[in-house]
Design goal:
Blueprint: H1 5-23, H2 27-48, E1 56-59, E2 87-96, E3 104-111, E4 117-119, E5 125-127, E6 132-133, E7 140-144, E8 147-148, E9 154-155, H3 161-167, E10 173-177, E11 198-200, E12 205-207
Parallel strand pairs: 1-2, 1-7, 7-10, 10-11
Antiparallel strand pairs: 2-3, 3-6, 4-5, 8-9, 11-12
Length: 214
């Protein structure tokens, strides 16, 4: 079932308000908040992913505008879980899907720190090389959000890229990333909106109830 005109208008209004509120935070403060978020991502990984299972694959993102910056990712050792030897990072690219009436879709390319990134048609930085990779069950997907509801649903920019991507990759661990000022907003939820497993802000790690999972 598609969105009603009222729901679409409400989401647009909320997107504009939340983006303006986030943009109003100084770059210095956002940098401090982002550093705290990266620390909590490291903590979440140390507490929830067995290092003995080898390389952890993290599907991250390059921050756009005033989004929280999750790069670079630094994973540390945990005495209970062992030492994390390596982390494999991939970043999204938006490509034209020739089989879907020219609709653009999101894929991920492997990325190592220091490799070239170039802006796409939306101004978002993407890898210019690296192999395309597909997430498997248990992989970690960091999902940027304009807002996250108390039920764990995410409000994005309206393109539907993450909803479509996650619909095709069941079993991944979805971790929303947002500043605390964006948590708790209420907005219309549609059937295609995928709930998150976890939200990480500069203040806390929030785990959502399994009863709300798809």
């Amino acid at each position: 079932m598609g969105e009603s005109m009222q729901d679409t208008t409400e989401k647009l209004r909320l997107r504009n308000e939340l983006r303006a509120a986030r943009d109003a935070v100084s770059a210095g403060v956002r940098a401090e908040w982002s550093a705290s978020i990266r620390e909590r991502i490291t903590l979440f990984v140390a507490e929830n992913f067995e290092a003995s299972k080898g390389t952890l694959r993290v599907f991250a993102y390059a921050a756009f505008g005033s989004e929280a910056e999750v790069l670079p990712l630094h994973m540390t050792s945990d005495t209970r879980r062992g030492t994390r030897s390596s982390v494999s990072v991939a970043l999204p690219v938006i490509e034209l899907d020739q089989a879907a009436c020219k609709r653009r879709e999101m894929r991920f390319r492997s990325y190592a720190a220091g490799e070239d990134l170039a802006p796409n048609r939306f101004g978002i930085l993407e890898p210019t090389s690296g192999e395309f990779v597909t997430p498997k069950s248990g992989d970690l997907v960091l999902v940027p959000a304009l807002a996250v509801s108390k039920s764990g649903h995410r409000l994005g920019y309206g393109g539907g890229y993450y909803d479509r991507f996650l619909a095709g990759h069941a079993g991944v661990v979805t971790v929303g990333v947002a500043f605390a000022l964006s948590y708790g907003a209420e907005f219309p939820i549609e059937e295609h909106d995928f709930p998150l497993d976890v939200l990480i802000t500069e203040r806390e790690i929030i785990r959502f109830s399994s009863a709300k999972r798809r």
